[in-house]
Amino acid sequence: MNASPNLLFAVVPKPVEQLSKQLQSKMVDPVVLQTLINFSIRYWKGEEICHSEWKNIVKESYFPLTLLEELFSGVLNLIFAVLRIPEKLFSPKCVCDELIQLGFTMEQAKYITNLKTTSKPDTPSFMKLLGANWRIDVTISTSNVCRVLEPWILMEFNLSSEGPKTIHIPLAQFHSLRYQVASCLTQLNKLSV
Amino acid sequence: MSTSNSASMLRVMPQSIEVINGINSAFLSNILLLIVKRLSEEQKVPQIFNQDEKLKLKELLSVHEDSTLEIVLSTLEHIIRHAAFHVMRPSNLSKHVSELGFHEQVGSLISELWAVHAKSVIDTLKKETCSHMKVEHIESSIHYSLSSHKGGHVEVPLALVHFNLNGGTITNKTMDRPHSVNDSCKTTLSLEFNREELTEFYQMLETIQSHLDELL
Fold first, then answer.
1. Which end of chain A has the smaller Cβ count within 10 Å, N or C?
2. Which parts form a coiled-coil structure per UniProt (chain B) (predicted)?
3. So what's the pLDDT on residue B203?
4. pLDDT at B173
């Protein structure tokens, strides 16, 4: 297979060629193929595939071990290629068509294409804000000054990698936070355009 | 409140009144100025004067005993804090100080200083809270996430908001160095947002602001 798909590969790797030949010869059981796709996703996410799971698929497929390993290599290369397509260049229809060209069925091609949006890589990142609760309080008096009458905001952040975190935001800092978030949003909108 | 405060001040007053009345005006003015300046500072320390300063003051004021110096300094600080607590006018403060037994000169010195520095002292003391995890400063930045070891080319713009927090507990690491009452572990909470998440966060902040507007 010399002609290469546009989005997936500049040059089609040999394992993918082998996979395509097997798919087009209708030798590969759909269930076995789906299992190999699932294994590839788990491998991409960094999960371990235990030996017993691999033994089961070898038994179910009735393929020789070497052939199954080649098929898995092809599926792995393909899945990685789909997931690596830049967001701006990703076109579900084009990817789907290319997968069908390689020998996948429509359902399988759609499933693989949807992986791009549903699977998130386990890459390092800062904490994400999952949700927030807030309360406005007014300090009437403290041990230092008998009449304060200053509002402040108590916020409870639900964070992705930690438990809830409660912070006290004085009014001046709250205004600073609003200004900075608005400023960031303006810049992000300009970047998107 | 004033009566009970006067009563509590009177317990320590007799010794300190005599000593303070005998202090040179220029020295007294400088001591009071240092007290109000240290009270106006955002970074608080447990004691206004450190040991070296107290030794120098002991010599300057010709005070023989440490306890007498402590009483004098704590009385002067207490007068200023009392004035700040009640948000006293300078004229009322001068009258109050004279009623306690201080010379008129001492009263006028304190009230003149209070007239100049009252606002800064009261504003700083108002900001002191006993809250845990108080936001001291907020910073933000915009980043472009280009690539990762698994995700390939992504090109996602991200915003980072950093909350510099003053809160937590003093650890063994900080125990060895001089620390202030508010110098509990400073931490930074960094949150990452994409465009949609930041929009949602901003809408929440706007909701809070609308409630604040109704309040004010």
1. C
2. none
3. 96
4. 45
Question: Does the structure show a pLDDT above 50 at B169?
Answer: no
Q: B100 and B47 in one domain?
A: yes
* Average pLDDT, integer, range A96-109: 87
Per the CB < 8 Å rule, is B135 touching A169?
Answer: yes
Residue A193: predicted pLDDT: 66
Picking from A85, A176, A188, the nearest residue to B195 by CB comes out as A188
Chain segment B78-120, per-residue pLDDT in tens: 899 999 998 889 988 888 888 888 888 888 999 999 999 999 9
Per-residue pLDDT at A119: 64
State whether B1 and A126 contact (CB < 8 Å): no
Confidence band of B2 (pLDDT split at 50, 70, 90): very low
A146 and B86: CB-CB below 8 Å? yes
Tell me, what's the pLDDT at B112?
Answer: 92
Residues 104-133 (B) with a CB less than 8 A from some CB of A: 122, 125-133
- With an 8 Å Cβ cutoff, is B197 touching chain A? yes
* B76, B91, B125 - which closes a domain: B125
Decide which of B125, B144, B164 is a domain's last residue: B125
Q: Which of B2, B77, B89, B126 to mutate to test the interface with A (most CBs of A within 10 A)?
A: B126
Contact A153 B208 (CB under 8 A): yes
Residues B104 and B203 in one domain: no
Q: Which residue on chain B is closest to A189 by alpha carbon?
A: B195
CB B152 within 8 A of CB A84: yes
Instruction: Note whether A138 contacts B209, CB cutoff 8 Å.
Output: no
CB B8 within 8 A of CB B85: no
Q: Give the pLDDT confidence score for residue A1 in this predicted structure.
A: 40
Report, as an integer, the average pLDDT of A169-174.
Answer: 94
Residue of B nearest to A166 (CA): B133
Residue B152 contacts A where some CB pair is shorter than 8 Å = yes
Residue B175 is predicted with a pLDDT of: 45
Rounded CA-CA distance B75/A89 in Å is 74
Closest to B200 (Cα-Cα) out of A131, A167, A156? A131
Number of domains in chain B: 2
Which residues of A fall within a CB distance of 8 Å from B8? Answer: none
Looking at the structure, do residues B150 and B69 belong to the same domain, yes or no?
no
